[in-house]
């Protein structure tokens, strides 16, 4: 994390709070500002701690005054504050230690309010069970859910004719997607068959040599294959590539 410049702004007007609330809010501000400014927010655990303080401060100063308070007292943007609050609220201190090795950008996506709760709960259940987290799969599900919600919102503004045309277009796109998926599976099956046939005709030493060359450059693997197995066609090599 690079150095963070705390913005020099006029202080928050605490006149609308009673003395106890004002003291609490100032304490939250000092802690958040010092922790963030000292670059201690380098782990999701610290991010969650800051988020928890921000949630407490929001209850103290009130929802209508919270964002002005963040701007004048904390020194970072509203979006940064919301991300940290989402982590504290939607991941929680009990689970946060389990995400230490996951990319921060991924954790923010899971914690975001726009992420469907069922996806987030499945993720947290996987964490609790110690299962391997496939970030790409989860991110794809989140993106798909967000796009679906966006389409549903757009659909509410459509006329019946526009809805009919949109449904037809989605059916065509779905059919095309299924066709491409089937072609991909067929190509994968063909490639596996070629690989199995290839390795069944190689000696152990030749197989080890092929694998070693494969670590260096794929085109060299093709050269070895062509030299050793002249029966392979250019199409076979293309599938392997």
From TrEMBL:
InterPro entries: DUF3102. Residues 166-181 have a biased composition (Basic and acidic residues). It holds the Pfam family DUF3102. It comes from the Bacteria. Residues 154-181 are annotated as: Disordered. This is DUF3102 domain-containing protein. It comes from Bosea caraganae.
């Amino acid at each position: 994390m690079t150095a963070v410049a705390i913005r020099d702004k006029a202080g928050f007007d605490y006149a609308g709070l009673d003395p106890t609330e004002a003291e609490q809010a100032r304490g939250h501000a000092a802690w958040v500002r010092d922790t963030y400014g000292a670059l201690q927010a380098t782990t999701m655990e610290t991010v969650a701690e800051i988020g928890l303080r921000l949630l407490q401060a929001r209850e103290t100063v009130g929802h209508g005054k919270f964002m002005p308070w963040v701007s004048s007292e904390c020194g970072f943007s509203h979006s940064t504050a919301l991300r940290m609050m989402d982590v504290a609220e939607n991941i929680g201190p009990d689970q946060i230690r389990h995400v230490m090795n996951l990319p921060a950008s991924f954790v923010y996506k899971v914690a975001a309010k726009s992420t469907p709760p069922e996806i987030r709960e499945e993720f947290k259940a996987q964490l609790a069970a110690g299962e391997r987290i496939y970030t790409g799969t989860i991110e794809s599900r989140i993106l798909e859910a967000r796009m679906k919600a966006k389409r549903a919102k757009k659909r509410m503004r459509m006329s019946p004719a526009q809805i009919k045309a949109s449904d037809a277009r989605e059916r065509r796109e779905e059919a095309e997607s299924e066709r491409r998926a089937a072609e991909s599976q067929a190509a994968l099956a063909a490639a596996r068959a070629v690989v199995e046939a290839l390795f069944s005709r190689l000696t152990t030493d030749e197989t080890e040599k092929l694998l070693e060359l494969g670590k260096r450059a794929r085109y060299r693997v093709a050269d070895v294959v062509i030299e050793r197995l002249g029966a392979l066609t250019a199409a076979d090599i293309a599938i392997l590539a």
